Structures are given as structure tokens and as C-alpha cells.
Amino acid sequence: MNTRRVRTAVDRGGTFTDVVRLGPDGVSVRKVRSDVAVVGDLADGHVTYGTTVATNALLERAGAPVLLVVGEGFADLSEIGDMTRPSLFEPDVVRAPSLARRVVEAAGRIDGAGMIVEPLVIPDLPLDGVEAVAVVLPHAPLEPAHERAVAAAVPSGVPVFLGHQECPAPGYLARIETTLVEASITPVLRRAVVRDALPAGALAMRSDGSLVAAEQLGAADAVLSGPAGGVLAVAALADRLGLPLVIGLDMGGTSTDVCVVEGGALPYREETPSVGGVRVRRPVLEVDTIAAGGGSVLWRDGVRLGVGPASAGANPGPQCWGRGGPPTVTDAALVAGLLDPDAFDPPLDPALVSLPGDADAFLSIAREAMAAAIRRVAGARGVDPRAAALVAYGGAAGQHAAEVAARCGIRTVVIHPC
After folding, report:
1. Which of 62, 105, 331, 335 is the 20 to 30 A CA-CA neighbour of 396?
2. Total-model pTM
3. Tens digit of pLDDT for each residue in 350-367?
4. How far is CA 137 from the centre of its chain?
5. d(CA 265, CA 253)
6. Which among 180, 168, 159 is positioned nearest to 223, based on CA atoms?
7. What letter would DSSP give residue 248?
8. How far apart are CA 100 and CA 70, in angstroms?
9. Gap between the Cα atoms of 279 and 403, Å rounded
10. How far apart are the first and last CA of the chain?
11. What residues contact residue 314 under an 8 Å CB cut-off, 6+ apart?
């Protein structure tokens, strides 16, 4: 076989991994759980890899524990953030926790002209229980000497990520958040790439839709890796169908992604939208990601019901898989009659499902979260969602697309026949 004629695209999600192969014999599609390596036995051609591993780890705060070193007086900046509140008028709002396990301050000062005006005092570095160190000091892009000196004090074998290298741009908080993402999520991403046994020469998609050697993919560039592929596909589909304005709804197992493509133009921006309460200063295709996937865990706090951000993932998965998992959106969809249990292998078992509330109520919460994301993204782009067509893709979007479209006043829904 001429391997150059075989192209394999892999979309590794938090719950399922999809493999599409295009070769002399046509197109073949394969879907497996994401706790199973699938690429190694498919390495007879050109492999392109997209993943939501970084996205999901960030949403679930499932990254490696990190020690963050900041300038004196800035220890609480990663917790305070930019003061954006998830709910403006709710007094008891809970922000997503910082990616830093511990934070220490380094005395010393570099001014806005890059001049050292106070000498560096390297603090004690408590490394027990952490896997990486992020060093982000004020004005380091102008003069990185202090960051480099702190890095030199870290014992060999502990990965160190420096703010002036990860994000050499204005904005201290942007450098902190971007560097924390790289330090915390990259170990998770690298473990996934190794487990998937990608062949030599495999390319991975970055958040801006460009490709890089898979072994060079870092977390800050991969926060929207998988969703970026969806944006490219939505743009191509809109062109093929002659649709001037489309909204993409990509509901997978762990998250749901929303994008807007108008007039065939790809929606680029210089930093990610908020993903799990964090913004990453890297070029991206604009996607709004929320923790409302098929595997998002359902919960009850007194009389209040909620969906996510935790996910059942591929293992143990939803309750109906029979592997001891928690109740999820998929379980609610099964109870509500949206899924045929016999259409799956092995079949789903509704008898195993025990929800902490009404199935339709949980589905309404998940759908409203998706509709809110559509309104948010459309509003930011200055478009009226009622004038758009909704393109539903991902493993679970078809179950909810009509209801979500109705909530947004959208009259046209496009769903792929497979």
C-alpha cells in the first residue's frame, strides 16, 4: 500500500476517541473509549491529531500540581484574576480555583524600562507534592534575569516554566495564567500523547488551526486543539451549503464548544475566551467551551440541581455503562427516551441509572448552558443568532440541537446523517 495515500485523523476526546481514515478503499470511521490507545495500529500513513485533553483537564482542574513563584505582593493575583464574575449579582459566587497548588513571593524589582532596581531574593521553594514550577515575575519580558535565577535554584528533574518564555506579552495576569496552564496541563497532555502511541511524523492541531509536530505540542497551544478542528469543518460545511452565518455546536463527552462563522471567515482572536475561568494569551480560533458534555456529572445541593464541571470520562463513564460511574447528562438523556439503549455496544442499561433529580430538569439545565454560550458568542461577534443556522456535531449534539436552537430562536439546524 502507498502509505502516502492513507490519511488518518484522530480526535481524542475526554470520553471517546474518533478515528477517520481516508485511503484507496474509501473512508472508514472508528470510535473507541479514550482510555484505549488507538493510533499505534493505524500508523500506516499520515496522522493528524486533535485533542481535548488539555481543554478537559483545565475545565476539571485535573492538571498537575504546580508551585507558582510571583513578585512580592502578588501572591493572591492568580486567585483574584481580572475580577470578572461568573454571575454579576450573585453574592455567594464561587470562582474556579487557581491552577497553582502553592504560591510564594520573590522579593526584588524590575521597573517598566527593564532596569533592575531591587536585587532578587530567592524564596524557599516548597516542592513537596508538586510536579512543576511556574516562575512569573513582573516586567520579565523586558529583563528575564530574575526569572532565570529562580529557575536555576530549582533542583534538576523538576520542570520549570518561565513567564517571559511562555507569554512574552504585556499584562502580568495574562502571563501568570498562560504559564500556569503550560505548567499544570502539559504533563497531562504529554502522558496522553505517549499513551496514544503516535507515530513518527504525526502532526497535532493547535488552537489556531495550525499544525505542529505532535511531540512539540504544549498545553497553552492545545487548550482548543480539538475544537479548532471543528471550527475548520464548520467553515468548510458552511461554504459547501451556501450558508452565510452558522453557529457550531460541538457536544462531546466532557465539554460543549460553540463557534460562529460568518461569511466564511474564520474567527481568530489573540487569546482564548475564558476556559474554566482562565484565559490563555495565544492565537486561537474563537470557541466558547463549557462543561456540559454527555459525561458531565449531575449533582444536587439541597434543592439546587447542577451539571458539571466534573466529568465521568471514559472510565468509569456514565451510570448506564455499568462500571460504577456517577449520574451524567447521558443517563438523563437515556431516562428521557432520547437514546436507544440497544444501539450501543454493549447496550446501555437504564436499570442502573439513579438520578439525584428529574431527568428533564437536568437536561434543561444543560441545554440552557449551551444556549447561553451561543448567545454569549453571537453577542460578542455582533450577530443575531436567529439569522444563523445551527450546525450540530460531536457525539451528543444531535440529541439536544433542536431544543437549544428553539431557546435561541434559530430556525435551521444541520445534523450530519451519521
Report:
1. 62
2. 0.77
3. 999 999 999 999 999 999
4. 27
5. 28
6. 180
7. E
8. 11
9. 30
10. 28
11. 14, 15, 16, 33, 34, 35, 36, 253
